[in-house]
Write a structure and sequence with these properties.
Blueprint (H helix, E strand, L loop, with lengths): L1 H16 L13 H38 L8 H16 L8 H9 L11 H48 L4 H55 L15
Length: 242
């Protein structure tokens, strides 16, 4: 700016002194043109800023979409499947009368069947022993299933804590949904354990009740035989409960 100002001052003094000034030494400043150029440059700069802002928004949108599509880094599926398999194995190890309809029907048609006059005392005694063994085995199976369910509680506690933490720290919608689905799976596993415990307990109670009913029926038959005329009581050696 200083050379231009000096040249303009020199030209002004030359005009005052009447000294001719070359045309190329004169600088014409048009304020309106200058203002127009500044406004144009400002508008272009604003357009560039708007484009930059738009690109930033698009980039942030892509980042958010990537977060929403990101998978949850934690999975409890393996631990839940292991817990369910342990409970299933305990149920499959049921002794004597297991969870099988045909096996139950056979037992109730033999050892739990009503006592008849054609059955010998040895058969009645054998049936009574078999019923007692069934009840004891069912009680043991029930306790084993309950112990397995209790052992799963610690695993469930760890998985619940991890899933809640993962849900709270989810970076997107997909991670939050996956964490929620795994929590639902954990609840389903807990319901399965509860169902297994109830089934095992119900089996034990059912066999115990069936044993009492069969024992009452057998007792009536043995009393009838004892009181029947012309058939005196005959003692015999009986071995029960090993």
């Amino acid at each position: 700016m200083r050379p231009l100002g000096l040249l303009a001052t020199t030209a002004a003094f030359a005009l005052l002194l009447g000294v001719p000034v070359p045309a190329r030494a004169l600088i014409v400043f048009d304020p309106s043109n200058y203002v127009q150029n500044v406004l144009t440059a400002a508008r272009e700069l604003q357009q560039i800023n708007n484009q930059i802002t738009s690109l930033q928004n698009e980039a942030q949108m892509l980042i958010n979409q990537a977060r929403n599509l990101a998978n949850l880094p934690y999975s409890s599926l393996q631990q839940l499947q292991a817990s369910i398999q342990r409970t299933q194995q305990l149920l499959a190890q049921a002794q004597r009368i297991a969870y099988d309809v045909q096996q139950i029907d056979r037992a109730f048609s033999t050892s739990y069947a009503p006592a008849t006059g054609s059955q010998s005392s040895q058969v009645l005694t054998s049936n009574a022993q078999s019923r007692w063994q069934n009840s004891v085995a069912a009680l043991q199976d029930s306790l084993r299933v309950q112990a397995g369910v209790v052992s799963n509680l610690d695993t469930n506690r760890i998985q619940t804590s991890a899933l809640v933490t993962s849900s709270q720290g989810a970076s997107g919608a997909l991670q939050a949904t996956q964490a929620g689905n795994q929590i639902l799976a954990l609840q389903a596993q807990q319901l399965a354990d509860l169902t297994a415990a109830v089934a095992a307990q119900g089996r034990a109670q059912g066999l115990e009740a069936a044993q009492r009913a069969a024992a009452q029926d057998q007792g009536r038959e043995q009393l009838r035989r004892f009181l029947t005329p012309a058939q005196g009581y005959q003692s015999s050696n009986v071995q029960m409960f090993h």
